[in-house]
Amino acid sequence: MNIETERLRLRPLVEKDAKAFTAYRRDPEVARYQSWDTDYSLTDAIDFIREIAGDTPGSPGKWFQFAIADKNSDELVGDIGVHFDDEGNGDLMIGFTLAGPQQGKGLATEAVGALVDYLKSTFSVRRLQAYTDVRNKKSQALLERLGFHQLRQIKKSGFYKSEWCDEFLYEKS
């Protein structure tokens, strides 16, 4: 199952992605607003990719992870996760990560926009939601470009990297 855009292909993660996946998860600037730490290992990546192998999007209560790959080279540049709600009532959550050198080129907007279109055309979507750290202005701008609206701020939503973090909840109907 692939979703193609002008420059990208969204597809399942595969083991050949593990090295690039590890590299951007270890990047302090990329990991800054994420739940993982910069000690993410190649073994962690391989284990994760093996664990999700064979998953298909749409399973209630589960995340599905899409690789964001360069359409020509098939090199991994990031990933997008989508969580399908437990009850199957059309409430989906998305989260996205792009490798540092790939940021600022419009690739994340292209990938997330394509995923939103795919989800809306394939599943009965009531609403899409995304959380972002209140300090992550780039993710906020991306969500707003794609028509997401900020619903609220959640104070001390999680304790990450030795500090409490506040998040914004975004939604798109």
Task: Tell me about this structure.
With 173 residues, this protein is α+β, with helices and mostly antiparallel strands. The protein has a single domain (3-126), classed as Aminopeptidase (3-Layer(aba) Sandwich). It is built from 5 helices and 8 strands, in the order ββαααβββαβαββ. It has an 8-stranded mixed sheet, sandwiched between helices. A hairpin with a 3-residue loop joins β1 (3-4) and β2 (8-12). The radius of gyration is 15 Å and the shape is globular. It starts with a strand and ends with a strand. The mean pLDDT is 92.
- Overall pLDDT level: 92
Structural class: alpha+beta
What is the element string, with H for helices and E for strands? Answer: EEHHHEEEHEHEE
Q: Which CATH class is shown?
A: Alpha Beta
Count of discrete alpha- or pi-helical segments spanning 4 or more residues: 5
The third-level CATH topology is Aminopeptidase
Rg over C-alpha atoms, rounded to the nearest angstrom: 15 Å
How much strand?
35-45%
Order of adjacent strands in the largest pleated sheet: 1-2-3-4-5-6-8-7
Alpha-carbon distance between the termini? 24 Å
CATH superfamily: Gcn5-related N-acetyltransferase (GNAT)
Our count of domains comes out at: 1
CATH second-level architecture:
3-Layer(aba) Sandwich
Quaternary form: single chain
Helix content: 25-40%
List low-confidence stretches.
none
Number of strands: 8
Q: In one word, what is the shape?
A: globular
